Amino acid sequence: MLLGAFWPWWLGGIALAVVAVGFYWVARRPLAVSGAYARFLAGPSADRALPSDPDALEAALLAATLAQFPDASAGAAAAAPASSPALIPTNVTWSSQTVFLLSVFVGAGVAAMLSRSFAVRADLGPDFVRLIGSGAHTWGVLLFGGVLVGFGTRMAGGCTSGHGLSGCGRLQPGSLVATASFFGAGVATSFLLEAIAR
Amino acid sequence: MKGRIGVIFFGFLLGFSLDRIGFSDWGEVHRMFLFADLRLFLTFAAGVSLSMIGFFTILRGQPMPRRAIHRGSIVGGLLFGVGWALTGACPGIMLVQLGEGQLPGLVTLAGVLGGTALYPRLHARFFRWDPGSCEA
Predict the structure, then answer these.
(1) Backbone phi, then psi, for A171, in 5-degree steps?
(2) ipTM of the complex in this document
(3) A136 in contact with B at a CB cutoff of 8 Å?
(4) Average per-residue pLDDT in chain A?
(5) Nearest CB to B119: which of A155, A159, A160?
(6) Is the distance from CB of A105 to CB of B99 less than 8 angstroms?
(7) N or C: at which end does chain B have fewer Cβ atoms within 10 angstroms?
(8) Residue B71 sits at the chain A interface (C-beta within 8 Å)
(9) Measured between CB atoms, which of B42, B52, B117 is closest to A169?
């Protein structure tokens, strides 16, 4: 069952919960893939803002806030220091987040190899070809969709892992609203795709 | 170092599980959104429910970031949902697709990195709320 067809819902649910709770247990922070991308893009140089030295941290936060709100006065920036670390979190090392993203990639590769489903292919399957098509224009669709995913998850402050599992699992209001929004938009978009193709 | 090995282990388990669940399959995700196949919805619901048990028992009393509703919660969520339905991929999934040999995931990944880089610039310019962070 482990390496045959797709897992039944209960086994998949157990696996996701083990990862969400286990990850917090070892890393002392919620599982959050979209946040890992943001941290990856911020680069290793942002590691210096780690809270080892409170004064250095405060100075780094102020500098980052001013960089993000160039027209704000120092007083206004100091009044809202939370904005900057929220957008580009620097309390986790760059290497930790990069290694995490690579581990997801490797884990999927090993699963695909063991289940003999690994195959290099240039399309995303028959349903994608039926609804979106094949050829160069699909790259545009994927790039556009990818930008929406990256932009939207940063705007909402999380994705399926951070809001969906970690946030909804703790009944956080912002996570429940964001999760309902992205599942709702996914449903609407998929029905729209079918309607257009018909 | 112990934390690092744990991050690698659970990252690996996440990628492994997402492949075996089929969350990286465009058609499976599409059928989930159409309610044509409820397996992925049930998987996610079971994952949230069991996580809830874990968070409120094993991790009870540990400080965790609060996630309040802000002006980006709904709009950001909606934009993400449209992108998810088009690409079949939420943020971890393009890495899973690439691990399985699904090359289009590379284009989606480029888009996600672009969108992730773009947002803070527009946020500083136009929006001024605190979106919270997955990593706080």
Answers:
(1) 55, 40
(2) 0.93
(3) no
(4) 85
(5) A155
(6) yes
(7) N
(8) no
(9) B52
Are the beta carbons of B7 and A101 closer than 8 angstroms?
Answer: no
Using the predicted structure, report yes or no on whether residue A45 has a pLDDT greater than 90. Answer: no
- Closest by CA to A142, choosing from B26, B33, B116, is B26
Q: By C-alpha distance, which of B109, B23, B88 is closest to A16?
A: B23
3-state class (DSSP) for residue B102: strand
Return d(Cα A149, Cα A132) in angstroms, integer: 18
Mutation site, A69, A92, A123, A190, interface B, largest B CB count within 10 A: A190
Q: What is the pLDDT of residues B75-131, one digit of tens each?
A: 999 999 999 999 999 999 999 999 999 999 999 999 999 999 999 988 888 776 666
pLDDT digits (tens, 9 = 90+) for A123-172: 899 999 999 999 899 999 999 999 999 999 999 999 999 999 999 999 99
Q: With CB atoms and an 8 Å threshold, state whether B81 touches A184.
A: yes
* CA count, 13 A, side-chain hemisphere, A96: 25
